[in-house]
């Protein structure tokens, strides 16, 4: 067993040293002129159909809303349900001014939905934070307001990129 380990370690060391000796890299002396190196150029060519595909993708995104998640905190029908929904929305915005709240009428209910969450996990994390205030709240799948969503992401990106000195 010792002979086997010894021969394996010798083989490994020899292959390591042999591999170190074989190099295609040429090192320039420090005094050499770097301007004598050959010049390289590159060009990128693309298929003209790519532009039409990008335009089709933009059109599709403009006509088909992005499906995400919101939290339903209020739903009521009846004579004064619109006023109650507006009160519920204003109460929510008073306590959580950084979150968007929407009043939606889906016959016969006025509903208050909050947030623009891409994933159900994001919505569940926020629901956990407001569950004591709104125990009847639950997560619903909804079309997101992408213009507002992208504006929020851009503001967050600006905050991340601005240095704090």
Task: Tell me what the structure shows.
This protein is of the alpha+beta class. The protein is 47% helix and 19% strand. The chain is built from 5 helices and 4 strands; from the N terminus they run ααβαββαβα. The chain has helices at 2-21, 49-63, 81-95, 120-130, 146-161, and strands spanning 67-76, 101-106, 109-117, 138-143. Strands 2-3-1-4 form a 4-stranded antiparallel beta sheet, covered by helices on one side. The chain is elongated and about 90 Å long.
Protein traits:
single chain; 165 residues; alpha+beta; four-stranded antiparallel beta sheet; 5 helices; 47% helix; elongated
Low-confidence stretches: none
Number of helices: 5
What summary fits the major beta sheet? 4 strands, antiparallel
β-strand percent reads 15-25%
Overall SS class: alpha+beta
The Rg value, from CA coordinates, equals: 31 Å
Fraction of residues in helix: 40-55%
Quick description:
With 165 residues, the protein is an alpha+beta fold.
What is the topological layout?
Layout: H1 2-21, H2 49-63, E1 67-76, H3 81-95, E2 101-106, E3 109-117, H4 120-130, E4 138-143, H5 146-161
């Amino acid at each position: 067993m010792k002979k086997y380990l010894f021969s394996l370690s010798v083989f490994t060391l020899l292959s390591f040293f042999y591999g170190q000796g074989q190099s295609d890299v040429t090192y320039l002396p420090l005094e050499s002129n770097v301007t004598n190196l050959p010049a390289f150029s590159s060009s990128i060519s693309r298929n003209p159909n790519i532009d039409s595909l990008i335009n089709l993708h933009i059109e599709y995104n403009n006509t088909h809303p992005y499906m995400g998640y919101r939290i339903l905190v209020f739903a009521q029908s009846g004579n004064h349900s619109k006023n109650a929904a507006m009160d519920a929305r204003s109460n929510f915005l008073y306590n959580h001014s950084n979150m968007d709240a929407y009043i939606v009428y889906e016959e016969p209910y006025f509903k208050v939905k909050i947030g623009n969450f891409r994933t159900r996990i994001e919505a569940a994390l926020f629901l956990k934070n407001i569950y004591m205030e709104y125990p009847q709240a639950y997560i619903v799948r909804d079309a997101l307001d992408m213009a507002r969503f992208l504006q929020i992401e851009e503001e967050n990106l600006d905050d991340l990129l601005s240095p704090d000195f």
